[in-house]
From TrEMBL:
UniProt source species: Cafeteria roenbergensis
GO molecular function: ATP binding; transferase activity
Membership in a protein family: Belongs to the ubiquitin-conjugating enzyme family.
Alphabetical UniProt keywords: ATP-binding, Nucleotide-binding, Transferase, Ubl conjugation pathway
Active site feature: C87
Name the UniProt record assigns to this protein: UBC core domain-containing protein
InterPro entries in the record: Ub_conjugating_enzyme, UBC, UBQ-conjugating_AS, UBQ-conjugating_enzyme/RWD
Domain spans labelled UBC core: 3-149
Amino acid sequence: MAGLSVRIVKETEKLHTDPVPGITATPFEDNLRHFNVTIEGAEETPYAGGIFRLELFLPAEYPMAPPKVRFITKMYHPNINRLGLICLDILKDKWSPALQIRTVLLSIQALLAAPNPDDPLNNEAAELWKSDEAEAVRIAADYTRRFATG
């Protein structure tokens, strides 16, 4: 962990020693600022039963700048686009150096459980969520089954 700030080392150790339920975050051996992340879909959501892969990268400016996070697993969600980019305020203008990796991951986990179609990154999904939520949920569950299980 040479070359990393004390803060990054401590955050990484805490993710390992005190894991967040339903979330794993493991740094890559060749770049300890780059994490392989999995988030389990919450029960009673269209993402239940899914294991979603993400990548998280801590820029050189971290913690003054937010981590870069994107979904690798293909999914249907109003706040996640086809490239896996995430519309979440703390990853943009509401970032604070007081936040940590685990806070970001918990916020993403919460976003999966409670999509916000009024602040979309995937306009098609957002419009369907507003006009026919049952159909949007059905499509999201189908994506989960096809891309996030097995």
